[in-house]
Automatic annotation (TrEMBL):
GO terms for molecular function: FMN binding; menaquinone-dependent protoporphyrinogen oxidase activity. It comes from candidate division MSBL1 archaeon SCGC-AAA259E22. This is Flavodoxin-like domain-containing protein. One of its GO terms (biological process) is heme biosynthetic process. PROSITE patterns: FLAVODOXIN_LIKE.
Length: 154
């Protein structure tokens, strides 16, 4: 199996930390969406798409990348994210949009991973240095690596 991963991390590099730990386990190429070239997906069986959550959504560059993707055959995908708040299905459901777009493009979406990340977005959070200051922490990174191992074992 061979892997590629696309990620966007603009706030505190939280998602980048998760992306790198997953990429290490999968021995995957890691790219920002702006670097995307269709030819890079040739021969890749599993592709990951990750982002910080910005206004209840993956970064627009990831959503644009998904629009640009050609129809895929026999490829699996996984998604990952970091966010200040836990994902609450229905009200905070940023994963569904990405899953739907990937499915439309012919990917089989096999799994998803998310964890909290340091968040200073709201001015009120900044008064006390933000929420989840030390995250993703070692435990989050361990969980991300376990998630990656399971992707290979499945
Ligand atoms: C512009 C902006 C909007 C955000 N919106 C949300 C949000 O809707 N829900 C949430 O849980 N966190 C939100 N956050 C917090 C980020 O999702 C969190 O800090 C994430 O870990 C950032 O990842 P990054 O450091 O990889 O960019 C927002 C942060 C920014 C900067």
């Amino acid at each position: 199996m061979s892997f590629a991963k696309y990620y966007k991390s603009v706030h505190h590099g939280n998602t980048e930390k998760v992306a790198k730990s997953i990429a290490e386990v999968l021995e995957a190429d890691l790219c920002e969406p702006e670097e995307f070239e269709v030819k890079e997906l040739r021969g890749k069986d599993l592709v990951g798409f990750g982002s910080g959550i910005y206004n209840i959504s993956f970064h627009e560059s990831i959503l644009e990348l998904l629009e640009e993707l050609p129809e895929m055959e026999s490829k699996k995908a996984f998604i990952f994210s970091t966010s200040g708040l836990p994902r609450i299905p229905i009200v905070h459901d940023y994963e569904s949009e990405v899953k739907e777009k990937l499915t439309e493009k012919g990917f089989e979406v096999v799994d998803s991973f998310s964890c909290r990340g340091h968040d200073t977005y709201f001015p009120v959070f900044r008064l006390f240095g933000g929420i989840h200051k030390d995250r993703p922490n070692e435990e989050d990174i361990d969980k991300a690596k376990k998630f990656a191992k399971q992707l290979i074992e499945d």
